[in-house]
Design goal:
Helices cover about 70% and strands about 0% of the residues. It is globular. The longest helix has about 35 residues. The N and C termini lie far apart (about 45 Å). It has one domain: Ferritin, CATH 1.20.1260. It is mostly helical.
C-alpha cells in the first residue's frame, strides 16, 4: 500500500495543478479577447481551460482509486502570470509562452514516456486523456508566439525564459526516490529531468529562438 499512497499524493498534486492551469487558461482567454487577438486563439485558450478541468476530474479518479479521501489541497487560482507592469497584450503573450510553449511542451514529452509504462487502469486512462490534449495546449503557445512575432519584436521575453523553464521543470511533485511508481504513471525524478532536458534542447529552445524570443 505504500506505493499506492505515494502515487496518490502525486496525483493529488496533479489535480491541484490542473485546476491552477485551468484558471490560467481562462485568464489567458480573457486577455486575448480584450487585446484583440485572433478569435481562433481566444477560442483555443477557452477550450484549454475546459480541458484542464476535465484533467482534474481524471486525476481525482486516480486518487480515489489509490487512497480514497486524500485531499488535493486548495489550488492557487491566479489567472495571470508575469510582471505586473506588463500590458494586457504582453501579459497574454507571457502566459502563452510560459504555459503553452514551455510547460505544456515539456508535459507532452513526459506523458509520452509515462504512457509506455503505466498499467494501473485509472492512471492509464488519465495519462491517455491528458496526453491527447496537451499537444493542443502547446500549440496555442506556439501559435500565439508566431502571431506576435509576425507583428513585432518579442525579444522582451528573453530575460524571462529562464524563470519560465525553472517553473515548468519544478512543477511536478517528486515521488519517493526508492519507489518504482511507473505503473501509476509517475516517472522517477532523474528520468523526468532527462526527458525535460531533451525536450528543451530539441523543441522548446529552438522554437523560441526561431521566433526571436531568445
Amino acid at each position: 500500500m505504500r506505493r499506492e499512497r505515494a502515487a496518490a499524493r502525486v496525483w493529488a498534486f496533479r489535480e491541484r495543478t490542473e485546476l491552477e492551469a485551468a484558471a490560467l487558461f481562462d485568464g489567458l482567454a480573457r486577455d486575448l479577447e480584450s487585446s484583440g487577438a485572433p478569435l481562433a486563439l481566444v477560442q483555443l485558450a477557452a477550450r484549454c481551460g475546459d480541458d484542464e478541468r476535465e484533467h482534474a476530474v481524471r486525476c481525482r479518479a486516480v486518487v480515489d482509486a489509490l487512497d480514497p479521501g486524500l485531499e488535493a489541497g486548495a489550488p492557487d487560482l491566479r489567472s495571470t502570470l508575469g510582471p505586473g507592469s506588463l500590458s494586457v497584450e504582453a501579459r497574454a503573450l507571457y502566459a502563452s509562452v510560459a504555459v503553452g510553449c514551455v510547460t505544456e511542451s515539456l508535459s507532452t514529452a513526459l506523458l509520452l514516456k509515462m504512457r509506455a509504462h503505466v498499467t494501473h487502469p485509472e492512471a492509464r486512462a488519465a495519462v491517455a486523456a491528458i496526453a491527447r490534449d496537451e499537444p493542443r495546449h502547446s500549440q496555442l503557445g506556439w501559435a500565439h508566439l508566431a502571431h506576435a512575432a509576425s507583428r513585432g519584436s518579442v525579444a522582451w521575453l528573453r530575460p524571462h525564459v529562464d524563470a519560465m523553464v525553472r517553473a515548468a521543470r519544478g512543477a511536478e511533485s517528486p515521488p519517493e526516490p526508492d519507489l518504482d511508481l511507473r505503473p501509476f504513471g509517475i516517472l522517477d525524478a532523474k528520468r523526468a529531468d532527462e526527458i525535460c532536458a531533451d525536450a528543451l534542447e530539441r523543441v522548446v529552445l529552438p522554437g523560441l529562438r526561431l521566433h526571436g524570443a531568445i
